[in-house]
Design goal:
This protein has helices spanning about 5-15, 25-40, 50-60, 60-75, 95-115, 125-140, 140-155, 165-180, 185-205, 210-234, and strands at about 80, 85-90. It has about 230 residues and is mainly α. The chain contains ten helices and two strands, in the order ααααββαααααα. The radius of gyration is 22 Å and the shape is flat. The protein has a two-stranded antiparallel ribbon with strand order 1-2. α2 packs across α4 (about 60-75), α2 packs across α8 (about 165-180) and α9 runs antiparallel to α10. It folds into two domains: about 25-90, Arc Repressor Mutant, subunit A; about 95-234, Up-down Bundle (Four Helix Bundle (Hemerythrin (Met), subunit A)).
């Protein structure tokens, strides 16, 4: 005979099991690798991404690579070009303007949360973010300085304490990299921002929020003008 008490205990035990985090599929892992390569500046805008070569390098099927391509095209990172296949996207002027509009919304509102007492600055996170840029510059790695700059601004958006916003903003910053790469001289683009990021870091840590907000607004305006000019010249 069935033991009702035992059945209920089993059901309770099953209900109490912890949920499992779904493992990423091969296509998701492939998309992550390609996305990271764009974020770190290893793939130039307009560069062709041969399906067969990627499949061999990543040790996955060509169907898996195609699925990863579809994901990244949906994120505005890749595009299909006739007679060329899939390639890394080139930003348009409208793309650049739109990205900076979103950046202003997310980054400035993050500072507003601190002013309202709804978020707190993490000094160590900001210091390490600014220091990473200075270290890359010391190694004459100006593409790496750009990566550090993207990461520094992601730490500002992290003040929202929203995993969804963090994920969205990282994808946006990956697209932003395509704008950075529109300039032939990464040092000329990124070097002025090393000191600006350090100043912004110091103001945030010191609680000088009005000054920090002004610095951030000036940075975003100047950077947008540079990227728009570079994109329009391509």
């Amino acid at each position: 005979m069935t033991d009702p008490t035992g059945t209920r205990r089993t059901q309770a035990a099953v209900t109490g099991l912890p949920s499992l985090t779904p493992l990423p599929t091969a296509a998701e892992r492939a998309a992550d690798v390609i996305r990271a390569s764009i974020f770190e500046g290893r793939f130039q805008p307009g560069a062709a991404l041969p399906e067969s070569a990627l499949a061999q390098a990543l040790q996955v099927s060509r169907n898996t690579v195609r699925e990863a391509f579809r994901t990244l095209m949906g994120e505005h990172l890749l595009e299909y070009e006739v007679h060329k296949g899939v390639a890394v996207r080139r930003l348009t002027i409208d793309d650049a303007r739109d990205i900076y509009q979103v950046r202003r919304t997310l980054e400035l509102s993050a500072l507003d949360l601190v002013v309202a007492g709804r978020a707190a600055v993490d000094p160590e996170s900001l210091r390490s973010g600014a220091a990473a840029g200075r270290q890359a510059a010391a190694e004459d790695d100006w593409v790496g300085v750009g990566t550090a700059n993207l990461n520094f601004h992601m730490r500002i958006v992290a003040l929202h304490r929203s995993p969804r916003l963090d994920e969205f903003f990282r994808h946006l910053m990956t697209e932003m990299r395509l704008g950075f790469l529109a300039l032939d001289d990464p040092r000329a683009l990124h070097e002025p921002y090393l000191h600006q990021n350090e100043q912004l870091c110091s103001a945030l840590i010191a609680g000088q929020m009005a000054e920090a907000r002004g610095m951030l607004e000036d940075y975003l305006t100047t950077a947008e003008d540079k990227i728009v000019a570079a994109v329009s010249a391509r």
